[in-house]
Amino acid sequence: MEDSPLSRRRLLWGAAGAAGAAGAALAVAGLSRLTGPEERVKAALPSPVRKAPVAALPATPRRAAPTDYAPAVWIPASESNYMPADRPESDPIEYVVVHLTTDHLPIMLATFEDPAERVSAHYVVSADGTRIAQCVRERDVAWHSGNVWYNHRSIGIEHEGWIDQPVYTDQMYEASAVLAATICAKYDVPVDRDHILGHVEVPLSTHEDPGDVWNWDKYMKLVATARRRVKI
After folding, report:
1. Of 106, 109, 131, 228, which is least surrounded by CB within 10 A?
2. Residue 55 falls within a domain, yes or no?
């Protein structure tokens, strides 16, 4: 087995998930003790989001800098699987695209790390909602939507699951909603179905995710609730 910091991190991350997502770095630690989805969304909100000009971003290597979203764990995609950029200066960020992995989370992360795959997304949310990985910097262009124009103007969020076996947990919806709301706050993306899209809704898409069972009404209400509470 490979003995590298990334391998050790994966092992520790897997152990944390099996133990019930312990640790402050996990996306929604402790939320199961709360009573309802809105309370859990409120508790999951990260520190206040502050907009900054692109020039104020830290000049640190893409593979070494902290995550753009505090609760996420940095599991970088191969540099062959995305395009370095300086968004929102180079292109405005106007959309959030919701995806489904159709595979287990570790396999999806390994796919993004494989330079031959030519695919990536900015974030991956685990099926139980306790872990979020960031794989591509928000300023960079991930190859996730199958449409170059939308890739340049969106942030992609993958969700662990299968379109033919859809089991979307409340915790996953809630963790994703807080992430999406934070992105919307940071880049002035409207919280509506014209700007928060399923992969299937991207023009020229050949994919069907997140599928008919994805509860858009529930998800959008959670995003709207979280967005009202995100501090800018």
Report:
1. 228
2. no
DSSP 158: E
Of 168, 37, 148, 134, which Cα lies nearest the Cα of 83?
Answer: 148
- Tell me if 109 is assigned to some domain: yes
Identify whether the C-beta of residue 218 lies closer than 8 Å to the C-beta of residue 173.
yes
This model's pTM is above 0.85: no
Full domain range(s) for residue 211:
69-74+100-232
89 is known as an active-site residue: no
The residue from 89, 138, 158, 208 that is catalytic is: 158
Q: What single DSSP character describes residue 81?
A: G
* Three-class SS state of 73: strand
The neighbour count for residue 112, using CB atoms within 10 Å, is 25
- Among candidates 145, 166, 169, 139, which has minimal Cα distance to 157? 145
Please count the structural domains in the chain: 1
Question: Is 206 exposed, middle or buried, given 0-12, 13-18 or 19+ CB atoms closer than 10 A?
Answer: exposed
**133-158 tens-digit pLDDT:** 999 999 999 999 999 999 999 999 99
CATH number at residue 214: 3.40.80.10
pLDDT in tens, 90-120: 999 999 999 999 999 999 999 999 999 999 9
Each residue's pLDDT tens digit, 55-71: 333 333 445 558 999 99
For the record, the structure tokens of 149 come out as: 């124009």
Within-domain flag for 1: no
Domain annotation covers residue 14: no
Taking the C-alpha atoms of residue 133 and residue 149, their distance in angstroms, rounded to an integer, is: 24
CA dist., res. 119 & res. 83, Å (int): 10
